[in-house]
């Protein structure tokens, strides 16, 4: 038995992220070389994976594995010959699980083009599709193909210098490197850490601006002034100059920190200076960010929304570590 995909003699396109507004969302080449691949998925179209083989092949089964959240039980396979259009061959009904699922076709087909369509699917947690048109299974190859395509691009996996196909598989064998699960976990951190935090902050900021009309007017005046200086264009440099806006966002993050507490596990016994209190190895330490941000000792009248708490002088007058919306130290938010 041989795998059609074994020698890399195929071209793959995915719709795993459906929003085609690449200007807005940037990172267009997350998966492959196709403009249709992008970060965000919100168009509600079915996702699909298209495989263009180098020559017509006989396909008798395929294997699919999902990673991350997936919804899409009503799926079908389309196939076509060299110049023919794609036709629906069979429905298939995968389960919303992460283990490998095998689908045997009712009868083998001859095809050059295949399209796996996942109707009603969403990809909130950036599922990875690992697929094998069968004769036989070459899972490692497919995985390494996906990863090598990823790492060839300038996407965020590049941040993990350790991510090279061989490292991924060494990791699976217990040696250093990132495993697929670890990479998937990173993807999830990006979605949850990067999206929810920002959207919640914007919501609370607008809520406070709606309640505090004077502050709203000040922000608008500043924005209008700086936009005019930059010819009406929103630019990185221009936004950096919006100091009062920065204060407003900082005050929003004080009053409503999206990450309300930080948690760490103590790795060795530690005596708190000038006390006989010992934090023992293994203890879970919780840092109450919300509590600090609303402590009247550091932020008098803490319920009041007051961006002046973040002018230069006020910031200098407080201990640094009482304001922790993005955490601190080595694990500080990369979006900070
Ligand atoms: C208002 C927006 C944001 C807030 C309030 C926020 C908050 C935080 C906090 C408090 C941490 C540290 C957690 C800890 O120490 O245990 C963190 C970590 C992280 N954040 Fe954010 N975040 C924001 C935006 C973003 C964005 C836009 C991204 C991605 C582009 C992002 C990606 C991450 C990642 C990857 C980590 C883990 C860093 C590490 O463990 O080394 N965050 N974030």
TrEMBL record:
Cofactor: heme
Protein name, UniProt field: F5/8 type C domain-containing protein
Location relative to the cell: Endoplasmic reticulum membrane; Microsome membrane
Major subcellular site: endoplasmic reticulum
GO cellular component, one term: endoplasmic reticulum membrane
Record keywords, A-Z: Endoplasmic reticulum, Heme, Iron, Membrane, Metal-binding, Microsome, Monooxygenase, Oxidoreductase
Chain sites annotated for binding heme: 333
Family note: Belongs to the cytochrome P450 family.
Protein species of origin: Coptotermes formosanus (Formosan subterranean termite)
PROSITE patterns: CYTOCHROME_P450
Domain of life the protein comes from: Eukaryota
Short name of any one Pfam family annotated for the protein: p450
GO molecular function: heme binding; iron ion binding; monooxygenase activity; oxidoreductase activity, acting on paired donors, with incorporation or reduction of molecular oxygen
Keyword match Heme: yes
Topological category with respect to the lipid bilayer: Peripheral membrane protein
